[in-house]
Design brief:
By secondary structure, the protein is α/β, with parallel strands linked by helices. The protein is about 30% helix and about 25% strand. A 7-stranded mixed β-sheet has the order 1-9-6-2-5-3-4, with helices on both faces. α1 packs across α3.
Amino acid sequence: MSLRQTAENILQWCFIKYLTLIERTVTIRWHEENRYGDSQIYGFWHEDSFFMNVVLDQLSRKTTPVDVIVTADTRGDYIENMIRRSGGNALRVPDGFRAFPALKKIVQDSYEKTHSIAVALDGPLGPRHEPKKLAFYLSEHAEEEFVGISLTYSFCLRLTRRWDKYVIPLPFTTVDVAVKNYGVVKKSDIPDLPVNADPAMEACVPADMTEKPAPASR
């Protein structure tokens, strides 16, 4: 086994162990405007990707199985491993124009089997909090409801040097999870989407202490 593969295995082990710790200690407060049961398209912000493993695991118990769209490059390897750990399935999609054949297959599969799909709205590389059209393309063409998910953490670390300001929730954190159904949404008519479930609650600590904490988004 190469040194690189060994390092990747160690990182994946650390991610899984920490995710297990979070699952055992976190408190989730749900704020739901959604009726479960049918296939839906879930959209969330890329910064919340880590904790979305916990959210989607719990959502899958209320609705149909949830597939998560993940980049096809090596960054997606870590994500896919965590998704599988949480009982989900990763759909690997290349970036850019190479994505179209994979997306066509995803839409076709949505007609043939009952499952929900989750996607990071501003992924894989931003800009932050600017939703791309992928989730709404799937909603429109598969004729499935789009459900927006936004999170707020009582205490967490925020990686301020990353483009998405990635959030790492801390043990014993309370997480507010807002789930809102927007119905079938066309890619030409994207709604305004909240970036926090409760902006007044969040207390994230910047991981890079040379930067000042950004004010809570509204």
